[in-house]
Design a protein that fits this description.
The protein has about 240 residues and is mainly alpha-helical. It has 15 helices and no strands. It has helices at about 5-10, 10-15, 25-30, 30-35, 40-50, 55-60, 75, 85-95, 105-110, 110-125, 140-150, 150-160, 175-190, 190-205, 210-225. The structure holds iron/sulfur cluster (2 copies). One iron/sulfur cluster binds near residues 22, 23, 25 and 80. InterPro entries: 4Fe4S_Fe-S-bd (IPR017896), 4Fe4S_Fe_S_CS (IPR017900), HdrC_iron-sulfur_subunit (IPR051460), Helical_ferredxn (IPR009051). This is 4Fe-4S ferredoxin-type domain-containing protein. One of its GO terms (cellular component) is plasma membrane.
Length: about 240
């Protein structure tokens, strides 16, 4: 039993999610993510159950732990009462704490989660703002959305509800500052802010500097696809 596994088993999500896996594969048979990706909850449980740090480290560096959509279908069917979704969350936290997430394309998308969903919640109490949903990145939303996006400040004035004209949660109300403070304290106490910081640090370590992280981020914003940034070979 290695140090990574020891750290994993301290996580309450791991403790709640893993009883003992008999490798029956029922979870994989019902998993929607397994149908479309190189992903199998049975494999995840098998690796974790091996308690082998080498295999766990490979898993933490791979895309696999980011494919789970947290639908909990596996939990309802598992004959041993396991919950792979919660084990996956514990693995994600471990991957971020150790910077392993930055080794995979899906893992690096945590920068988006941190800078958009995480920072929005801390600043405004909402995960996603209308400003984040640019027509260039979401063409499937069509002409109506394009119109709204371009005229949002004007249209928000028509609605006459208390919200900022820019960077607003849209039609939602503004969250009072005292409630936002409470949210920030929860994030601080539960370790979410530490994880958000670890995402920035992990990306910096992987790409070599803060400036490269910004370049990566800009490539993503401008082209809608982070894969257009070439990851430096720092082996
Ligand atoms: S359904 Fe449960 S016991 Fe079967 S492989 Fe999945 S986690 Fe293991
Ligand atoms: S929670 Fe994750 S592992 Fe379980 S069935 Fe849904 S996508 Fe698959």
């Amino acid at each position: 039993m290695g140090t990574l596994f020891n750290e994993l088993k301290q996580d309450i999500l791991y403790q709640h999610g893993m009883n003992a896996c008999l490798n029956c594969g029922v979870c994989t048979a019902v998993c929607p993510a397994a149908e479309f990706n190189d992903y199998s909850p049975r494999e995840i449980m098998n690796i974790v159950q091996s308690e082998d740090d080498e295999q766990i480290e490979d898993l933490l560096k791979s895309d696999k732990i980011w494919y789970c959509g947290q639908c909990f279908s596996c939990k309802t069917r598992c004959p041993r009462g396991n919950n792979t979704a919660s084990v996956v969350l514990a693995l994600r936290r471990l991957s971020i704490r150790h910077g392993y997430f930055a080794e995979s394309e899906k893992g690096r998308q945590q920068l988006f989660a941190k800078r958009v969903f995480g920072e929005n919640v801390l600043k405004r109490g909402y995960t996603l703002l209308a400003e984040n949903i640019t027509p260039a990145h979401f063409p499937e939303l069509g002409e109506n959305w394009e119109y709204y996006y371009e005229h949002r400040a004007e249209m928000r004035q028509w609605w006459d509800v208390p919200m900022d004209l820019e960077n607003s949660p849209g039609s939602h109300r503004m969250i009072p500052e005292k409630d936002l403070d409470e949210v920030r304290r929860i994030y601080q106490k539960t370790g979410a802010i530490a994880l958000m910081d670890a995402v920035e640090k992990g990306m910096e370590k992987k790409l070599g500097s803060k400036a490269e992280v910004e370049k990566y981020w800009q490539t993503w914003l401008e082209t809608g696809d982070s894969r257009n940034y070439e990851i430096p070979d720092r082996q």
